[in-house]
Write a structure and sequence with these properties.
This protein is an alpha/beta fold. The protein has two domains: 155 residues, Beta Barrel (Lyase, Ornithine Decarboxylase, Chain A, domain 1), CATH 2.40.37; 247 residues, TIM Barrel. Helices cover 27% and strands 26% of the residues. It has twelve helices and 21 strands. Strands 4, 14, 15, 16, 17, 18, 19, 20 and 21 form a nine-stranded mixed sheet that branches. An eight-stranded parallel β-barrel has the order 5-6-7-8-9-11-12-13, surrounded by five helices. The chain has a three-stranded antiparallel sheet with strand order 1-2-3. The protein is globular and about 70 Å long. Bound molecules: pyridoxal-5'-phosphate (PLP). Pyridoxal-5'-phosphate binds next to helix 10.
């Protein structure tokens, strides 16, 4: 469910035509629907209503402060993966007591900042990291709350780059050695073992990998409790998929029912780390057609059309990175007639495409398009490649439209850059 609908022939975000956003803020622009974000959070939260739980929004999916604040205003916490995310989460009003810190490569300064803030727990991924956290906490005269991220070795059946719960992935501690590592962790003076954590991958469209992982985690929790470890948190990660094209992922209620069932009877608080499912379909990338171009396809099988637009792989990397599908919708009245086309950006890479081999309306230069489902891993993965300024981010609530991050300026492109002193300035005219 989302609030991007056609009204009187125009694609709108809630009560605002996307054409208006383009007129006011230009293109390319990321546009987020506040009502959609709130709705997704509430549905997810209510699905776990029957048991103690904390929803820690995985902010790497979309790190905009207004997006984070939308969830924290509804009672949510945040899942972070860096000191930078910690700073932004705190700045966006996230309560430290609902922040969990994941990731394989935490640095000393990041651990210090998290301990200083007083986060809910560290999700620890190796013995080396346990040692570092123990030492840092000792120096700060604190005890660090810790869960170990275990790798349940289940196949999430998703894209290999976003599957994380297999033996061959860099993430987590093998579930078979977990008890040993837990005993070792429990012996550290400055570490308080509080929970078990896993995260098996992203964009999962089936329930069974979650059920398998939860079953293995439960077995582990029971073993640890029998050994006298006070496990009170079970963090099941994120990863629930969304519909980009024709996927039929489980509804959050089915997902919640399966997870709750897997842990029923255990005296634990569940921690959930949803990212994509909260923000993915709550955002679009608004872009304008610059040029159209035709070429003959190989084998002479008709013509191939390109729509060259002002957004590119630096704005939305997913199609280039994972071959991902994003729907393309006309923003105004669709031109008559359909053509087979690619939607491509201005970047000097053949991999710079937003959509490939699609039946699309026969757009003309100046037409606006919406790249759908771009709220997750869109802006947050964007870059300045080809010295392109990062897009503006706009949030809409009802008929209100606000810039929640300005478009970068040309000055931003060289911010912090200096000319090396041994490069004497070239004399003009030579
Ligand atoms: C990326 C990530 C998430 C969120 O994944 P989604 O697929 O966006 O829900 C949750 N937990 C951890 C540890 C992650 O790395």
């Amino acid at each position: 469910m989302h609030h991007f609908q056609v009204k009187r022939g125009e694609l709108c975000c809630e009560g605002v035509p996307l054409r208006r956003v383009a007129e006011v803020s230009g293109t390319p622009a990321y546009v987020y629907s506040h009502a959609t974000l709130s709705h997704h959070y509430t549905v997810f939260d209510e699905a776990f209503g029957g048991i103690p739980h904390v929803i820690c929004y995985s902010m790497k999916a979309n790190s905009n402060g207004s997006v984070i604040r939308t969830f924290t205003n509804l009672g949510g916490g945040v899942d972070i993966v860096s000191g930078g995310e910690l700073a932004r989460a705190l700045a966006a009003g996230a309560p430290p007591s609902k922040i969990v810190y994941s990731g394989v490569g935490k640095q000393v300064w990041e651990i210090e900042e998290a301990l200083r803030a007083g986060i809910l727990m560290f999700n620890v991924e190796s013995r080396g990291e346990l040692e570092t956290i123990d030492a840092v906490a000792g120096r700060m005269r604190k005890r660090a709350p810790v869960s170990l991220r275990v790798n349940p070795d289940v196949d999430p059946k998703t894209h290999p780059y976003i599957s994380t719960g297999l033996k061959k992935n860099k993430f987590g501690i093998q579930i078979a050695q977990a008890v040993r590592d837990y005993e070792w962790a429990a012996g550290r003076k400055n570490i308080e073992v509080v929970g078990v954590d896993c995260h098996i991958g992203s964009q999962l469209t089936e329930l069974s990998p979650f059920v398998d992982a939860a079953g293995r985690i439960r077995t582990l929790v029971e073993r640890l409790v029998r050994k006298g470890m006070p496990i009170r948190m079970v963090d099941i990660g994120g990863g629930l998929g969304i519909t980009y094209d024709d996927e039929l992922p489980p509804h959050p209620r089915q997902y919640a029912d399966a997870i709750v069932r897997a842990f029923s009877g255990l005296d634990v608080t569940l921690v959930l780390e949803p990212g994509r499912v909260l923000v993915g379909n709550a955002g679009v990338l608004l872009t304008r057609v610059l040029y159209t171009k035709e070429s003959s396809a190989p084998g002479g099988k008709g013509k191939k059309r390109f729509f060259i637009v002002d957004a590119a792989m630096n704005d939305l990397a997913r199609p280039s990175l994972y071959g991902s599908y994003h729907g393309i919708l006309p923003v105004g009245r669709a031109p008559r007639g359909k053509v087979n086309a690619d939607v491509v950006g201005p970047i000097c890479e053949s991999g710079d495409f937003l959509a490939r081999d699609r039946r699309l309306p026969s757009f003309s230069p100046g037409d606006l398009l919406a790249v759908m489902s771009a709220g997750a891993y869109g802006y947050s993965m964007s870059s300045n490649y080809n010295s392109r300024t990062r897009a503006v981010e706009v949030m809409i609530s009802g008929s209100r439209m606000e810039v929640v991050r300005e478009r970068e300026t040309l000055r931003d492109l060289a911010r912090g850059e200096r000319t090396a002193s041994f490069l004497s300035p070239r004399k003009p005219g030579r």
